[in-house]
Amino acid sequence: LIENREAINIVAVDDDPENLAAIASLLQKWKANYTLFDNVDNELAYANQNGAPDVILLDYQLGSDCDGITLIKPLREIWQRQIPA
After folding, report:
1. 8 Å CB contact between 60 and 29
2. How many angstroms from the chain centroid is the CA of residue 66?
3. pLDDT (tens digit, 9 = 90+) per residue, 3-29?
4. Strand positions, DSSP E, the chain
5. For the whole model, what pTM was predicted?
6. Backbone φ and ψ of 19, nearest 5°
7. pLDDT 10s digits, 29-72
8. Which architecture does CATH list for 9-79?
């Protein structure tokens, strides 16, 4: 049992609403702080205005013109950290 620990901060991006709902349910059970996005543009806008999370969860296929692997690079550049993804 670990007590008095800070909750982990997670950002997740998935363009499927059912997947986002499942992610939210799991992260609530883990008592994590999380922010969810259903598209790349909103995530990039958030990244430019907010500090880095502890972890990034990305769907592989994010619409027709982006994937999670490609999105990691600009997020890490914006946040200037090698955030686990």
Report:
1. no
2. 15
3. 545 789 999 999 999 999 999 999 999
4. 9-13, 33-37, 55-58
5. 0.84
6. -65, -40
7. 999 999 999 999 999 999 999 999 999 999 998 877 888 899 99
8. 3-Layer(aba) Sandwich (3.40)
Positive or negative, the CA dihedral 16, 22, 27, 31 is positive
Could you state, in order of their start, the residue ranges of all structural domains in the chain?
9-79
Contact of 54 with 45, CB cutoff 8 Å: no
Q: CA angle, 16 as apex, 78 and 80 as ends, to 5°?
A: 10
How far, in Å, CA of 40 to CA of 63, rounded?
Answer: 9
Token pair listed for 16: 């499927």
Q: Are 52 and 27 in contact (CB under 8 A)?
A: no
Q: Which two tokens stand for residue 81?
A: 């950290």
Q: Which amino acid is at 3?
A: E
